[in-house]
């Protein structure tokens, strides 16, 4: 039943010309998620470009420059629904200078679809994207070996790429990797099973996406509730109401639970869990609720309500895996704003421990420079304690961004080690 | 057996409420851009839920082109009185009268693009630092590139190629004097999700969305409602049709579709099998291939 359907967010990654946009166009087209007027619009656009057939990539290339240059510049979001699931696709550019968008797309994804050109095999970009996917702890990675039609649907070509990929990915932490041979252009193994590759026993891509088990990917153990704002109606009807509004990051909260407010350390019990005019018995991720406590204690934005028997670390010193996203290089020793859950503080990069050579995964030490697209392990010191978990255990309470106060731009994304 | 995951509609609702609370916490003077269309109605409903039992903490900003459906205005005023919140009106007519903008001329003249100036003027006059919109990424290809928190420079312009990366749910709403933000809590919803949600929540929407009889004119493949603003061409005739609207914009540019769907159940069933996009009947999007991007860059909704 559609009422019980889950949402699956997946990101797509690959180099330029690996056929990402074509694959997405194909998924939408074959699952009948493309409307007649959209199809007519891209038919016209394809004719204008002097193409014989319909260029499915034009569905995702939305901006003027993208359509003119035939490349994807910015993250584009696409939606489709099958009788089994609702999908959000984050289409991310393959261009090296836009790698920050890949990190953006990966940060919210349940799954990553990594494209490899069957003719070229695993290349630098494939490695970079797979590394980012593992770094951002995307639980499921589906490697689509595309353009199988151009290698005569040859099984050995497919197996060779699996070998190449596994040699590289054994150094990464990826829980679930699958391989599918496809031709996005012709629709082989995208929505429908290919008739050209009887040697492939697995499921087509769409079926794989529809059946990935994602319910167990959430952290149900460590109950964390970052407070976004306090609801105080101060009306005649609700004179004494104080609801702490937020979204459960992880774990399960129940009415009556003994809780601690961090960083103050005050303890209380959960009195009610409110969702609009309904009172709930429990709340779990990613529910937005308002929690009221038995005792009148001081709680505000930036505080975190946790279960008293399971607390996060409160610390000013963080070891962080940092992706630098800005063309102004990092300046160790200067102050940045740091955002962690609903908490905003100042922070300083104290030390760059090492950078990764993305292609070999080797560590480069003795460096203090962080440039756009660099991934490095750094030490960060904050002005006040943050209540943290490691990113591996908790994607929400384990992640931070850095903001440059001179430009207000988001310059780095960090995963707490 | 108890389940510990949300269905897709609950997850989308929770995400939107999270965004609205983040807006409230990060900005000084946020407003909801209220057009009287279903998307802004859903955003207003979500805001009610996000801050309950407190009153909705946002004023509603309506950019009034003067070319409204009368039903939209009646509906707007009722919502305002029900919520007990403030209404701010930016008037395109006043922008024209004061010489800020010039009315378009000719058969296909509309006030659609003129709204940009009125909107940006209202934002600056009322010191608004965040305008919350009902824009959805599935609506249009330029909107597919929007962030939840979308930065506008001190000219109100959007720079799609230079957007701030938006990671996890860590939204960066920092801005300098004169700049502002647009926030889109229902970015991840599709048209179908909106209708399913309206049905599930029993949200009131203007009667225009339901099948009704109306005087219309056939123009550019849709039924344009007859109004005093419409200049009839020699080959055009007014006819009576049983129609409904799939989206609501100005009365001059919103095309209706023939339909007997007079209940939410029938509308949901109809939308499910629709073969054209909802903005397909909006002539404002048809002016060029990148009409929406071009207007958005200048500061459009």
Query: Most extensive interface: pair and counts?
Result: A-B, 81 and 62 residues
Radius of gyration of chain B (CA) equals 19 Å
On the 0 to 100 scale, the average pLDDT of chain B is 90
CATH A-level architecture of the largest domain in chain A: 3-Layer(aba) Sandwich
Structural class label of chain B: alpha/beta
Give a count of the beta strands of chain B, DSSP E runs of length 2 or more. Answer: 10
Main β sheet profile of chain B: 6 strands, mixed
| Total helical elements of chain A | 7
Shape of chain B: globular
Kindly report the spatial arrangement of strands forming the biggest sheet of chain B: 3-2-1-4-6-5
**Helix and strand element order of chain B:** HEHEHEHHEEEHEEEEHH
The CATH class label of the largest domain in chain B is Alpha Beta
Q: How big a fraction of the residues of chain B is strand?
A: 15-25%
Helix content of chain A: 10-25%
* Tally of separate domains of chain B: 2
Round the Cα radius of gyration of chain A to an integer and report it.
24 Å
Strand content of chain A: 35-45%
CATH topology of the largest domain in chain A: Rossmann fold
Q: What number of domains of chain A? A: 3
Main beta-sheet strand count, sense and barrel state of chain A: 6 strands, mixed
Could you walk me through the main structural features you see in this protein, from its secondary elements to its overall organization?
The complex is a heterodimer of chains A (417) and B (301). Chain A contains seven helices and 22 strands. Chain A is α+β, with helices and mostly antiparallel strands and 417 residues long. Chain A folds into three domains: 2-217, P-loop containing nucleotide triphosphate hydrolases (Rossmann fold, 3-Layer(aba) Sandwich); 224-307, Elongation Factor Tu (Ef-tu), domain 3; 313-416, Translation factors (Elongation Factor Tu (Ef-tu), domain 3, Beta Barrel). Chain A has a six-stranded mixed β-sheet with strand order 2-3-1-4-5-6, sandwiched between helices. The relative contact order of chain A is 0.11. With 301 residues, chain B is an alpha/beta fold. In chain B, the strands form two sheets. In chain B, strands 3-2-1-4-6-5 form a six-stranded mixed β-sheet. In chain B, strands 8-7-9-10 form a four-stranded antiparallel β-sheet, with no helix packed on it. In chain B, strand 1, helix 2 (38-51) and strand 2 form a beta-alpha-beta unit. In chain B, helix 6 (191-201) packs antiparallel against helix 7. Chains A and B meet through helix 2, helix 3, strand 2, strand 3 and helix 4 of A and helix 1 and helix 2 of B.
